[in-house]
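assembly run, all chains below
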Amino acid sequence: MTLDAGSEYHPYLQQLGGHSVARTYQTSVSCGAGITQPLLKECYRIGVQTHNRSKFEGFLLGEKGNVVGVKMRENYHFGEDQPGKVLNIRAKRGVIMATGGFAQNIDLRMAQDPTLTSEVGCTNIPGATGEGMLEMFRLGAVPVHLAHIQSGPWASPDEGGFGYVSNYSIYNFPHSIAVNCLTGKRFMNEIADRKTRADAELACRDAKGEPLPPILITSYKDSKQHPNTAKVIKYNVGWKFDTLETLAKHFDVPLKALEAQIKEYNGYVKTGDDKQFGKNMSKAKDKYLEAPFTVVRLWPKVHYCQGGVQVTTKAEVKDSLTGMPILGLYAAGEVCGGIHGVSRLGSCSIPECMVMGMTAARSIMNA
Amino acid sequence: MTLDAGSEYHPYLQQLGGHSVARTYQTSVSCGAGITQPLLKECYRIGVQTHNRSKFEGFLLGEKGNVVGVKMRENYHFGEDQPGKVLNIRAKRGVIMATGGFAQNIDLRMAQDPTLTSEVGCTNIPGATGEGMLEMFRLGAVPVHLAHIQSGPWASPDEGGFGYVSNYSIYNFPHSIAVNCLTGKRFMNEIADRKTRADAELACRDAKGEPLPPILITSYKDSKQHPNTAKVIKYNVGWKFDTLETLAKHFDVPLKALEAQIKEYNGYVKTGDDKQFGKNMSKAKDKYLEAPFTVVRLWPKVHYCQGGVQVTTKAEVKDSLTGMPILGLYAAGEVCGGIHGVSRLGSCSIPECMVMGMTAARSIMNA
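ok done. output:
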């Protein structure tokens, strides 16, 4: 379906966070817009109407508590005090909520996980504040897994949002080392699941307990294949070093310890057996760490909320007291909870959105 | 306050689940009723009215959405179809919800943690089904940590509820070994936090993946001090064996492996250093495992819901959209979320109930 609509994909498989093998094709623009934009164009072609600059303000309910529409504020610009008119939009068959997660709602995410302070950035749009989900809870939807929030361990504190570094480091993690600047040593399996790595990065602190972002060290020869490498260097969110000495001096890392770490790691590249953290070294084969190096800094950004409302396999939103669907209410995507468990694997939100979006559409047409 | 009301405590400190040292005095009846019953008597003495056999059916709301009372069904017997009249009870100052957790609501707990099927028992009363919490979510309370549900790793599959074994094993864990019947080997630190142990027990399965409850092996000489030891043997939920051979035969455990395990463990008793699971051996000092043995079977029971509604430090229930208190609504005890984090430490619900119960009462008197 996405190919029919015009999506394009990189011609190679990638091994994303938490996966045991390389099994993911990524869009050639390396983000979800490579799927949503072609689908949106296709929607316009077949006559679907959309409303941009509009804010969901609540549900319209029928006499039996069923959902018969939504309140929508027109002409809305996020965070600005210039509210448009609120329209009541009636739904012929039902409402599908696809309002995403709440990663930008700092109060709500800190209620679930106190480590996710404003000190931790976020890859989501500013409007990912979860009011759609919260309104569904007021209707009686079942809250599931809100406490399971995933931070992306591939993000950089040196740029906003997803930026250029995220895809750079996702590509390079398999043949790179992540190093704690205080010790000069590795501190994690660089391709462990996202939560394990984000927690490990957040634990990298200076003597006063302040954040000390760790660094990802890659051989320049192995990093330069990725299209973002030139960009991270150009925009000063990544740096190239000709020698280990200049690298260590730049980040104030103990040189001797770092030298020993790289020597040790190159031994694992040779044997294919990472005795420090059990990393799968198959994608690091023959990729010894050697100068010149490319380096980026890492600090997690809140990326995905595993939690949300409970849905049936038909994408119906369940009522917490009756266990039955709330009539007229459907949901798909990140706003749903319980699909991915404690930590979503990289790339698995795409099939969830596609499959459950289509399922919700089919359910609503049969309602 | 509890001493003034007449509570009595065992004269020795106990080291409960997840604690690093022995720091808990337990009531002499070894359960919370040793606190609640004396407090209830004291309430009657000062003229407090209570309503037993009554079911909470929802809130009465004022014009501004503030809570001004509750609907209460009289003459209610749990699970029976003989509903009494529903009364509207007006609250002069506000309502304090102390409705406990939802450990008996199998649908809701499985939505949060699919391993907590009906196969896993529960220590709570049958009415711990969470409707009070769910009604608060409908008013806009913030759901926090619902996915963090604790199972008691000290429970027995051979009796209902908390039973006799739970306190027996809590007392004996420090100087006992828990053994997987399939391997004859230990599989956990017997005094790790509750969640770690419950997860380890649930992983004990036979070749077909069916539950194979592990066994807790204690020297009879060290178990007999606990008042429940005679009871677990009398009621056939624990057994005494004169030799390791009869024990191994009874539970179909490989004898050689079990012999080797006990020899190894007794080495740790001697050195004070558990090289298998890092258990703190200080309470096992000089307590070598020797025949005759007392044995109980272990299988987790859902015990405590860390999750619930978010409250302020004044025990006010917060609104998910405004972040302000929902006027007239207070909560204390297990129905609150976010107090204990991922896994509550043994005994820590008592101070939470006492402190936040008093806090809620003070807030309501100042409202």
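The domain at 96-131+143-151+305-366 of chain A is CATH 3.50.50.60 (FAD/NAD(P)-binding domain).

The mean pLDDT of chain A is 94.

not gonna interpret more than that til we talk
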